Amino acid sequence: MQKNQIVELEITDLSYEAMGVAHYEGLTIFVNNALPGEIVKAKVLKVKKKFAFAKIEEIIKESPDRVKVKLNQWVQTGLASLAHIKYDKQLEFKRNQVVNLLHKADLDQIKVDQTLPSPEETGYRNKAQVPVRMVNDQLEIGFFRRHSHDLVPLTNFFTTDPEIDRVLIAVRDILRKYKVPAYDEIHNKGEVRYLDVRRSKASGEIMVILVCLHRDFPQLPKVAAEISQIPDVTSIILNHNPKKTNVILGKNDYVVFGEDHITDKIGDVKFRISPQSFFQINSLQTPRLYNLAIEKADLKPEDVVIDAYSGIGTIGLSVAKHVKAVRGMEVIKPAVDDANANAKLNGITNAEYVVGKAEEVMPRWANEGLKTDVIFVDPPRKGLTPEFIDAAVKTNPKKIVYISCNPATQVRDLQLFREQGYDFNEIDPVDMFPQTPHVESVAVLEKAEK
Ligand SMILES: C[S@@+](CC[C@H](N)C(=O)[O-])C[C@H]1O[C@@H](n2cnc3c(N)ncnc32)[C@H](O)[C@@H]1O
What we know:
Binding site for S-adenosyl-L-methionine: 280, 309, 330, 378
Number of helices: 10
Bound molecules: S-adenosylmethionine
Pfam families: TRAM, tRNA_U5-meth_tr
Domain TRAM: 1-58
Largest sheet: 9 strands, mixed
Strand content: 25-35%
Active site: 405
Number of domains: 3
């Protein structure tokens, strides 16, 4: 097989990144955009020893699960790389990810529920982080083509709250009007790198973050004054990111208009959210995810609860009024400040959050003799560490509720807990990210009977 060769392929599977999978002359071929059951003519893009990448030239036999995507850019950019598959099949794809991982781990007996669908299939994101670049001498917002830094200009971000798209376009036009240069990442010059916009569905408040190369730029006062006139914008932040890096946000934020946070709500609990704080992006699905996790925790009024990887305290503060005490830890300081402020904001006096790495804080607490009843963990994609797991077990909880955005690391960690006398019999996938291959899942570990 050679680059640029055209081959006819039968697609037999979907990879975890939602690429069609085919086999040809002993090679596994990943075909962008192709679906199982389809026969396609594809052009070979790259050939490695055991696998190759190809793109569709022509669909000879089309899958009945295919959706005609209006804007092919969504799929191309990876912004919504499952958008070409019917929603019920997306849910099945996500469930299958979990089933396959359990199968590989010899855990076929674990039950995997149907994926809980999201109330909104599009327009669900309460936050957009979009790159800003010059394209043909004009400042554009958009998204990078998959596996590249080529900006595809976009004005409809599809999975984002349409109110946020409206603000993104308005800010883009203001930057154009004042001739603010976009960031040039090759030479590390120019100015605006990203626009980061957050909107609370509950309060309607909107935060606009201009991620900039410099702490200030000549047009900033006029630009800020005009952005502040966009309806519902209550906060404008300049995030200073001077480094040549792929990391989106720099360390320092400067308020250029309004508040340093916006306020949102999950259930009855209010949350202030600062620019650097993590907040679940699917506003309508988040309470359903938390309710599932909380129901499974079967909390009692005398329980001591840990909220690990707590972000702004959303899980712990949602349960604080029903338990004896909540203690949480989180590595981002502004998020911890938010969490403690959020406790006060809601009149909660039995919850306390500290700054630190979970894998360091948990062992410290365990060594101090802390005993717990229920531990909630909600780590980033890389999952937990063995140090955290050992320390969590040492505090002797009845239950550990594991919320994960990466079932591969979740299954790995659940096995480590199993070796330490905890067991689980079910994983529930929840769709937090429709139109994308991302899978969220919840599992509950209980102390195994001796
Ligand atoms: C998936 S988020 C969950 C946040 C929160 N539970 C929620 O539902 O909004 C994971 C959080 O873990 C934090 N984090 C990442 N690495 C960490 C570590 N080593 N120790 C503690 N927190 C960490 C991130 O900053 C982020 O807020």
